[in-house]
Write a structure and sequence with these properties.
- The chain is α+β, with helices and mostly antiparallel strands.
- The chain has one domain: Outer membrane efflux proteins (OEP), CATH 1.20.1600.10.
- The protein is built from 13 helices and four strands.
- A hairpin with an 8-residue loop joins strand 1 and strand 2.
- It is elongated, with a radius of gyration of 38 Å.
- It starts with a helix and ends in a 15-residue tail after the last helix.
């Protein structure tokens, strides 16, 4: 390496190009020096090579490592062609809720600004790998010697400079900026995904709350009827006063529960109104379009088998963490390259005119060089510290990526467990609802025939309402588990304008990514 620098130093000390009409010997000497400089540059490029980039290891369960045919078919059967997971609920209001929540989200513009900032930084870093070209102009009139005519000179041209990226530092910095752009774009997708999941959760919870409130009010009315019957029976001496007091207490307790449920629904409505920025009248109109006595929207879900780890690559947060690892690797390479020689080549080309003292010359003026080489000798350990910091930053980025993968696996497993649990319990809950409903219908028939009392009727009604409330809560739990699974597997949501743009924009070099949805 020292021999190369020693050979290159005489060439760098000669800054003049040979005169076009000069002796042939001078032209040969200049050409020989230029060839020597080019050879030295090639030798510098071969002195040291940067380490290859290693892809971080994703700590996923062994069952997820390789997709089996059954697992792939199960996962694919749970997708729709357009990847619209929210359409699995068959809820006409839900898409409007998602759209309104995204447009009202305060994080929307912040995410866009971060992407724009990262894109500008990536463009600037990419430009550093290319030659820089500047326009120059100079107009001068002077009298350099007394009692001589004044001279005028005019020059217009361009100047170029280019840092030869011998050790990959400039390219690594550009790659780091590009990776940060990818990370910011993935984070923007994560923000959009989080807003959509939160909006879906709020809307489904509000629907379930209104259904539970209607059931709670019906239960309170039934218990109030039982209390009145018990009071009449007690006044006739056919029941103890304590029974009447107990019936009144049960009715009051049921009415208090109904009012608490109604207040909870009002609070949920206000939260959804704040999330969507809808006026109160608009939200009431959307809520009125949904039958509170009808069933909750149940997602159509195909049985899910073992999920391949490749599905986790859809998650925007994992894509962001992986891009951060790539950026940290670029920073590490750039910091290592900063400790090595830096080579910059410059030149200029101008059209000039010189007039004065009987001289009028015009024509092109050009220069190639100098070829500058700088090598850090002493900086108090600053470059070494920067290299150590970049290596530590890379290790930290890898650790964050692995932690994010573990968290993603846990979220998917928890969502799948919730889906399996609700599926196993839903059958029993429906059997209970159907059985108690059949008992209520039979009791009503017996009351009409004079074979049963009002006490038996209200007791059957209250039991049926309790079973319906349990089923509603279970349906909400299952719907929210599906939303959580869609989010855990990276199911994205796009507003209408973005979806239309994506549908009309051809994408090359990438395969479509599946997202969880109904079958």
């Amino acid at each position: 390496m020292n021999d190369v620098l020693a050979t290159l130093s005489p060439t760098l000390s000669s800054r003049r190009a040979p005169p076009p009409g000069g002796p042939r010997r001078h032209r040969r000497l200049w050409l020989g020096s230029t060839s020597l400089a080019g050879a030295a540059v090639l030798l510098l490029a071969g002195c040291t090579s940067l380490p290859a980039l290693e892809r971080p290891v994703a700590p996923v369960p062994a069952a997820w490592a390789t997709p089996t045919p059954v697992a792939t078919a199960s996962a694919a059967s749970a997708q729709t062609a357009d990847g619209a997971w929210w359409l699995a609920f068959n809820d006409p209001v839900l898409p409007e809720v998602l759209e309104a929540a995204w447009r009202a989200s305060p994080d929307r513009e912040a995410a866009r600004a971060r992407v724009a900032q990262a894109r500008a930084a990536a463009v600037a870093a990419g430009a550093s790998t290319l030659p820089r070209l500047d326009a120059s102009g100079q107009l001068l009139r002077q009298r350099a010697v007394p009692d001589t005519p004044a001279q005028s000179s005019l020059a217009l041209g361009v100047q170029a400079s280019w840092e030869l990226d011998l050790f990959g530092g400039v390219g690594a910095a550009a790659q780091a900026a590009s990776s940060r752009l990818q990370a910011s774009e993935a984070e923007a997708h994560a923000v959009r995904q989080a807003v959509a999941a939160e909006a879906a959760t709020q809307w489904l919870s509000l629907r379930a709350c209104r259904t539970l409130a209607a059931q709670a009010q019906a239960d309170a009315e039934s218990r109030a009827a039982s209390a009145r019957l018990t009071a009449l029976t007690a006044s006739a001496g056919l029941a103890a006063p304590a029974d009447a007091a107990l019936a009144r207490a049960a009715a009051a307790q049921a009415q208090a529960s109904a009012r608490a449920q109604a207040a909870q629904c009002e609070s949920a409505a206000q939260a959804l109104q704040a999330l969507t920025a809808w006026p109160a009248a608009t939200l009431r109109e959307r809520m009125a379009s949904v039958d509170v006595h009808g069933p909750l929207p149940a997602p159509r879900i195909a049985p899910l088998g073992t999920l391949p780890a490749a599905l986790l690559a859809q998650r925007p947060d994992l894509r962001a963490r992986e891009a951060e690892v790539q950026a940290a690797a670029g920073d590490r390479s750039a910091a290592q390259a900063a400790q090595r020689p830096r080579v910059v080549l410059s030149g200029s080309l101008s059209g000039a005119r010189l007039q004065g003292a009987g001289l009028d010359a015009r024509g092109p003026v050009w220069s190639l060089g100098p070829l500058q080489v700088s090598l850090p000798l002493f900086d108090g350990g600053a470059l070494s510290a920067q290299a150590d910091a970049s290596r530590a930053g890379y290790d930290a980025a890898v650790a964050r990526y692995q932690a994010a993968v573990r968290q993603a696996v846990a979220e998917v497993e928890q969502a799948l467990l919730a889906l399996d649990s609700t599926a196993a319990r839903e059958g029993d809950a429906r059997v209970a609802v159907e059985g108690f409903a059949e008992r209520l219908r039979a009791t009503e028939a017996r009351v009409r025939g004079g074979l049963a009392s009002g006490f038996e009727l209200e007791d059957a009604r209250q039991t049926a309402l309790s079973a319906q409330g349990a089923l509603t809560a279970l349906q909400l739990e299952r719907a929210l588990a599906w939303v959580n699974l869609a989010r855990a597997l990276g199911g994205d949501w796009q507003p209408r304008d973005a979806a239309a743009t994506a549908a009309t924009t051809p994408v090359s070099g990438s395969a479509p990514r599946p997202v969880p949805s109904g079958s």
